[in-house]
Amino acid sequence: MAPMRQQLAGVAFLVLAGLGADAIGQKPAVEAQERHFVFLPRSSYFVIAPRKPVAKGKLSRLLVVLPGGDGSREFLPFVRDGIAAQVPDDCVVAMLAAVKWRDDQQVVWPTAKAPVADMAYPTEDYVAAVVKQLTAEFAVDPAERAVLAWSSSGPAVYPLLCAADGPFPRGYVAMSVWPEQVATGDLTAVKGRRFVLDQSPDDQTTPFRHVRAAHAALTDAGAIVRVSVYDGGHGWHDRPLPRLKEGLRWLWSEQPAPAPKWPPPPKPGTNLVVNGGFEQGLDGWRQVDNSTRLVVEIDKGEHASGKRSLHVRKTGGGPLDLVVQEVELPAGGALTASAMVRSQGAANAWVKVWRYDAHGEAIGSDVDLLRVPQDGDWQRVEKTWPRDGAVRAVVQVILVLGGDVWVDDVALSVAK
Known about the structure:
By secondary structure, the protein is α/β, with parallel strands linked by helices. The chain folds into 2 domains: 4-251, Rossmann fold (3-Layer(aba) Sandwich); 286-414, Galactose-binding domain-like (Jelly Rolls, Sandwich), CATH 2.60.120.260. The protein has helices at 4-9, 76-83, 123-137, 154-162, 180-183, 209-220, 240-251, and strands at residues 33-35, 45-48, 60-66, 91-96, 140-150, 170-174, 194-199, 224-229, 286-288, 295-299, 309-314, 321-328, 335-344, 349-356, 368-372, 376-385, 392-399, 403-414. Strand 7, helix 6 and strand 8 form a beta-alpha-beta unit. The relative contact order is 0.10.
């Protein structure tokens, strides 16, 4: 499977199209000045001045934005016309563009602990230079500095928010993983710092368990953490700008964090797989195209039941490609999975179910629901595993070599 950061870099946020004035040929409502640091080669950041002059004797606020996805300047219209419009009038906004050090770079925002070959400096130094420059130039109050990150930039921003010498006492982190290096590190410095964690329970790219873990760890360490939940999965869905405005307002306030409104827990005895019959297309599923030759379709002409099925096909050899869904497991007993599968010319294909414990460790080596036959008509497969402390499961449809596989009626349940 491709590394998580590579997958995050490839996520396309199509919902952003049209949020920026550039997308429709309009003149931007505000200007963004592009700047560079001579001592940081390839650095490029954009500065949006406060909407109103700051009163004499008063200090400004600062919001530093590290965009997700590929981290490029292509996110400037969304940041300039969308995010910057949600901040207070006395706030200067800076968007950093990620530096691409090499063509095969997988980590969008490399850090000192997660470097890439040939990088001249880590993200920490890049951010520190921007913060130092703008704090002096705009007379920014250090207590009013905040950072906003999403998806691929989250793993680089969490360490900045949790470090004792970090530049930000406030942070808005959306649709991000909770990095292992932070989870296992010293969180003493977060006491009194403020966080907004914005995540969708439907997210299969950065599953919702990450926000649960981050909230638990940060609040236990004394941070003030607000959880924001929205519909639609990975990306800026479900009216993101009003949600950003409210989240940023709270972030710069001194209000206590409201109790999280967690989604209802899954129930034993029910199918835990979202859209297992693929009647809603690929909702709930994520595809990982490591070979760049994977084709994933919803087939309306070939199905075991209903009106649709999943059709995955590829040509050539490895690396393996897959379609995957992660499922949180409720309290209960044994785990049972089933599916309908059909194949044609499938040289090396599998349907697998992985179980994971609370520490993220895989449980056991018996993960095969089916070694898909090279050619076969629809067949139903079912298998039961002991619980063995599993708290989540991952269902995978895997193609290592070429061929066609159809899947329908995927189910996963926990005994009451």
